[in-house]
Specification:
Layout (H helix, E strand, L loop, with lengths): L5 E10 L3 E2 L2 E2 H11 L5 E5 L2 E2 L7 E2 L10 E8 L1 H18 L4 E8 L9
Length: 116
């Protein structure tokens, strides 16, 4: 797969306790992105954060949270990202959870895999 130099970064913020039929929503999103043929996805787990509810989520021992922030990043061409957005709406509706979705400009410098 070839990526144009001008691309978009889709960033999705969820909580690690958000699930669909027992599957973490971040896993569900990554599998759906793969099915949609997107260039790639990466999941990051945060140590601390808060969102719309202003409830603080932290991994500190004394204030252990079961809902740490998770960020999923997907980079691809705008058209492919735009085509994936309705699927994200479906996922959030099915999970009955909140989240934040942003899109930013990205400049692809290199996109390659390992040679087999």
């Amino acid at each position: 797969m070839e990526l144009k130099r001008e691309a978009k970064l889709l960033r999705i913020f969820v909580g690690d306790s958000d699930k669909i039929s027992g599957i973490p929503i971040y896993e569900y999103i990554v599998f759906e992105a793969k099915k949609a043929g997107l260039a790639g996805a990466t999941v990051f787990k945060g140590f601390m954060g808060f969102g719309r509810s202003s409830r603080l989520h932290t991994s500190k021992i004394l204030r252990l949270s079961e809902d740490l922030p998770i960020i999923i990043e997907i980079v691809d061409e705008l058209e492919k990202i735009d085509a994936f957005l309705p699927k994200l709406d479906e996922i959030f509706e099915k999970a009955n959870c909140g989240g934040l979705v942003t899109i930013e400009k990205a400049e692809v410098i290199k996109y390659s895999g390992t040679k087999k």
